[in-house]
Amino acid sequence: MSNKKRFEVMENETIDACLDRIKGEGYQPVRRVEEPIFIEENGQPVPHSRKIIFDCKKINM
Predict the structure, then answer these.
(1) Cα–Cα distance between 45 and 38 in angstroms, integer?
(2) Are 6 and 52 in contact (CB under 8 A)?
(3) Residue 59 contacts by C-beta under 8 Å, 6 or more apart in sequence?
């Protein structure tokens, strides 16, 4: 089993719900990454939303 895992905040999920899911699986977040998602309007990229990803490590118990 790996000591590191990445968790993505799902579309209809709050950050708190994702953190609860991370804790429930026995991991602890060590880094948060936000990636922008763009859509194209009139030939130009326009910010649409963002993807939030947590890099996590296994909690030693």
Answers:
(1) 6
(2) no
(3) 26, 27, 28
Model pTM above 0.85 = no
Residue 34, both tokens: 């936000």
Q: Which residue ranges make up each domain of the chain?
A: 4-58
16 backbone dihedrals φ, ψ, rounded to 5°: -60, -40
Per-residue pLDDT of the chain (61 residues; tens, 9 = 90+): 578 999 999 989 999 999 999 999 999 999 999 999 999 999 999 999 999 999 999 987 6
Q: How far apart are CA 19 and CA 29, in angstroms?
A: 8
As given in the structure block, the two tokens for residue 46 are 């326009």
